[in-house]
Design goal:
Blueprint lengths: L2 E6 L5 H14 L5 E5 L12 E7 L7 H12 L8 E7 L9
The protein binds flavin mononucleotide.
Flavin mononucleotide binds next to helix 1.
Length: about 100
Amino acid sequence: MPKILVLYYSRSGNTEKMANAAANGAGSVARTDVELNYYVSEEQLSDYEAILVGTPTYHRNMPRIIKNYFEEAAMKNVSLRGKSLLLSDLMDGAGNVQS
Ligand SMILES: Cc1cc2nc3c(=O)[nH]c(=O)nc-3n(C[C@H](O)[C@H](O)[C@H](O)COP(=O)(O)O)c2cc1C
């Protein structure tokens, strides 16, 4: 059964709500195993076939904590090759031009 991770970072709750909705939607697909989490270790990313990352926009970019996380995963040689990866960001309207 394909494992899907919905991983999110949220300070004021908007992204958390979106992540919840995404996990519910993905969970309604038959024969999928969906996990909603705000943290898994970088190494654990290997366990999933698809990863949806929910993040707010900070200063027209993704938050440093998200960048650091994926940079750390790369440094630990965690390969995301062949996985479906969707990065989704929430913002107040000042476009996200750099992430
Ligand atoms: C420090 C900080 C910087 C932000 N920078 C931007 C920005 O550049 N553009 C934008 O449209 N929204 C910006 N926002 C608004 C957030 O992206 C938006 O409120 C988002 O929904 C917050 O997500 P959360 O509730 O999951 O924490 C910023 C918010 C904070 C706290």
